[in-house]
Write a structure and sequence with these properties.
Pfam families: DUF7521
Protein name: YapH protein
Shape: elongated
Largest sheet: none
Low-confidence stretches: none
Number of domains: 1
InterPro entries: DUF7521 (IPR055943)
Order of helices and strands: HHH
Number of strands: 0
Keywords: Membrane, Transmembrane, Transmembrane helix
Radius of gyration: 16 Å
Length: 97
């Protein structure tokens, strides 16, 4: 296996993993939002927002780099900021209950 083949293999695996993260994260966000709609509890709405931000953050860096041509470091910084805000919102949602 050449270096180029290994890079392509890793890129495909990374794309598959990021797609699975997007699907599972979106499903968790949907379930939290559905629970919010059923109960109208603010904590569940915050939980849905937090999971949505974390999911978006996990997928964003690669998309910005590949599609919009943003530098990889900038993409990773934006990804990390979204994940940080998402985790803060999730923690707050657990605190207010």
């Amino acid at each position: 296996m050449s270096f180029h083949d290994a890079g392509t293999s890793i890129a495909i695996t990374l794309a598959v993993v990021k797609t699975l993260i997007l699907l599972v994260g979106s499903f968790i966000t949907f379930l939290a939002f559905k629970a919010y709609r059923r109960t109208r509890q603010r904590a569940l709405w915050l939980l849905a927002v937090g999971f949505g931000l974390v999911t978006l953050g996990l997928v964003l860096a690669g998309l910005l780099y590949e599609i919009l041509g943003v530098s990889l470091m900038t993409g990773i910084l934006l990804e990390s900021l979204l994940m940080l805000v998402g985790f803060v919102v999730i923690a707050y949602s657990l605190y207010v209950t």
